[in-house]
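Problem 3 from the worked examples.
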Amino acid sequence: MKKKEIKKLTNKQKLENIEKLKKDLFNFRFQKVNGQIKSPAKITETKRNIARLKTLVEVKNA
């Protein structure tokens, strides 16, 4: 996900994407342990996307 794409999303969409990516990361880790993952770079990419989304989520209690 690019920064421009993330900025177009609403806060609710960002939070939904974070949850989806966390589930994906969980599955990638299991695939890695079982030797089934085809692209180990997906783990790093998913972590970065989660960090990008978390960085741009507006905090309401700040």
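Problem 4, a separate protein:
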Amino acid sequence: MSAPASASPADSDLVRAARGLPVSRTPVWFMRQAGRSLPEYRELRAGTKMLDACQDPDLITEITLQPVRRHGVDAAIFFSDIVLPLVVAGVDIEIKPGVGPVVASPVRTVADVDALPDLDPDRLGFLETAVRRLVAELGATPLIGFAGAPFTLATYLIEGGPSKEHAGTKAFMYAEPEAWSRLLQKLSVSSSTFLRAQVDAGASAVQLFDSWAGVLSAADYAERVLPHSRAVFDGLGERDVPRIHFGVGTGELLPLIGDAGADVVGVDWRVPLDEAARRVGPGRSLQGNLDPAVLLADRKTVDREVRRVVEQAKAARGHIFNLGHGVLPETDPGVLTHVVELVHELTASSAHATTPGR
């Protein structure tokens, strides 16, 4: 699939970079690489609702593989959606085109929290089937497991859908601290169950997406959110896979995001990676952080910004090249392929491969 000649996913450049080990070249993958900008994805998804596609092993497998085939990225990300564990558990959610996930009965009271259904692992057979197929197809290319973090799941449940201010979520967090804690405990179990199923079926790493954590102060995050994100990673037990943790607008939270149990801290485009390395400290690798909008610029600009990210990442223990958030739908797929090739070209050297700690 992708170019590195590692014998197994466990010895791939992605896993090694996540652990801070020497690599043959900087590994690359893109958030929202499975779909979005790919015409073959749009053709395959035509007529199929997102949440239906996310529960069809055939579609999951093909969509997850498409960007690996096209771009030569160093990892596949399991095709899913942040709200899928809630849907599988029985929460009535619809993803409306142009809007996002819409919850039929939002969580507004303590009773609503207690009434939320738990995720039964026995309902994840479709996921396990898809992961096993993917692992067989990917060979030495690692598969990254996918799950939404408790806070981000809570925002959808409380707001009833996407929100800019997340005012209802924060009001509930402040006004109902005990119910808030119970809600995030429930959601941490759900996220952990979802990740465990992927790892047990063969995923080589996991990423926890806390898309909206950046709306919180560091104090609120540390007290009211971090323990529950940590519980997700703790729920993986002794499973020996790297843990990646990512949020948007989380520059002030970077050290805390690492403290939640991550081996790799994802960084959005707002904080340069050398500064992010200083904030996170030497014990964790970084992932990121090209601005997705740069990919819409001319090739000279793309190359300059890719080089900047690669250079700044030298301050980190290890580096996984990625965007600072997801691929924009209007992105030319050829530009993504070019970025993969350029990062590989810039970082493939004997010195890069043999210098411990980067």
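Solution to problem 4. The beta strands are 76-77, 93-96, 100-103, 143-148, 205-210, 243-247, 264-266, 285-290, 319-323. The chain has one domain: 9-354.
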